[in-house]
UniProtKB/TrEMBL annotation, chains A, B:
The keyword Glycoprotein does not apply. The gene is rex. It comes from Deinococcus indicus. This is Redox-sensing transcriptional repressor Rex. NAD(+) binds at G88, V89, G90, R91, L92, G93. Homodimer. InterPro entries: CoA-bd, NAD(P)-bd_dom_sf, Rex_DNA-bd_C_dom, Tscrpt_rep_Rex, WH-like_DNA-bd_sf, WH_DNA-bd_sf. SUPFAM superfamilies: NAD(P)-binding Rossmann-fold domains, Winged helix' DNA-binding domain.
Length: 232, 232
């Protein structure tokens, strides 16, 4: 599995979401052209994206919804438990903690952290909010895979460093800030600090969505521009 | 401006965010390799993405931060006012309304809508929450460009239809649901209902971010896979 564009992974996630919607509508079969139409891409693209990970359908027969769904769940690693901490428990952090669907997969919130004394000690979704300073100690005694970052932008870099120091494997960053791994003073520009090696950062940026929307409202003809991978 | 991949637009948004961070750090010059390193892409990719929209730098001299920033703001359409309504004013809608940075650009919240009687009539950020049934009447008397959708997933399609009926130009969908345009009964599969023509839908899906993060934690070697556009 080399050279899979990140956009293909995003589309895989979209296909999975569509399959889940088909399942709730009791639709048990689909095809690359049906998936393509619902996802707003070409059927060629769907077949190509799926082909990175195996052969899921029968030629000319399409796909069985629950089977393709189960395979995509497996490919994406959603058939295993992910222990998550949320750093930042203001409106946004609480909205994330209560976002429907995370518990449909095995995302489990195991800790909530904030620096605001008004929040530390409060109960949110059955968890006691702890001070962010306790994060490292917490991960020493509890398995934590991911950290969701929902702090104000000016605190995002420091909070990300706290998560890196605490040894999480991935950060989902909701702050409109590009998180930078710490680099070693003596190292070259590529030499990043140990705690950042192999740490994955994904971003969910509301502002980025607003900006993309503004651009495409002004340039609607570009919206469904075929990607270079797509000969259609 | 044809055939610009959507991923290039997302990267443009990232470059702009980086330029803003450089500006707050009083850094006035940058280069494609500097931008590339901060964005986690190749310098070739940066130059290619920018070249879709014009020539912004001087060969061998790099870019002036405030000038490139201003140009990207213009390209993305962020130098004009965007009037926004939010549909769904629960925790998530309120987090969106209070998300820092939207007001740095000219995104202006002009209306908040919900169906919950406990919320209708309440004040949020200086606006009175109205019932979603009033949306169409509201847009008849007020200029509304975009609708942000922050309702529970089971209500997202109906709320999106209400926004389409109200004549917004774009929807930013925060619900983990793929919004489908209404199709005409008598039409072919491609024939969509008038109110959806030219309407742009962008998605911000927390669950999609969680799933991508899970995938890349399990497949870290794929994280920075060069895109097919990138010969590096």
């Amino acid at each position: 599995m080399a050279e899979i564009p990140t956009a293909a992974i995003s589309r895989l996630v979209t296909y999975l979401r569509i399959l889940e919607q088909l399942e709730t509508q009791d639709i048990s079969r689909t095809s690359s052209s049906d998936l393509a139409e619902r996802a707003g891409v070409s059927a060629f693209q769907v077949r190509k994206d799926l082909a990175y990970f195996g052969r899921f359908g029968t030629r000319g027969m399409g796909y069985t919804v629950p089977i393709l769904k189960r395979e995509l769940v497996r490919v994406l690693g959603l058939n295993q438990t992910w222990n998550v901490v949320i750093v930042g428990v203001g409106r946004l952090g609480q909205a994330i903690a209560n976002y429907p669907g995370a518990s449909d997969y095995q995302f489990q919130y195991v800790g909530l952290f904030d620096v605001n004394p008004a929040l530390v000690g409060q109960q949110v979704r059955g968890l006691t909010v702890r001070h962010t300073d306790e994060l490292r100690d917490f991960t020493r005694h509890n398995t934590v895979d991911m950290g969701f970052l929902a702090v104000p932008p000016e605190h995002a870099q420091d909070a990300a460093q706290a998560l890196a120091d605490a040894g999480v494997k991935g950060i989902l960053n909701f702050a409109p800030v590009v998180i930078q791994p710490r680099t070693l003073e003596r190292g070259g520009p590529q030499e990043i600090s140990d705690e950042w090696r192999g740490l994955i950062v994904e971003n969910i940026d509301f502002l980025a969505g607003m900006k993309r929307l503004a651009f495409y409202i002004l340039n609607p003809h570009l919206k469904d521009a075929p990607t270079p991978e797509d000969p259609a």
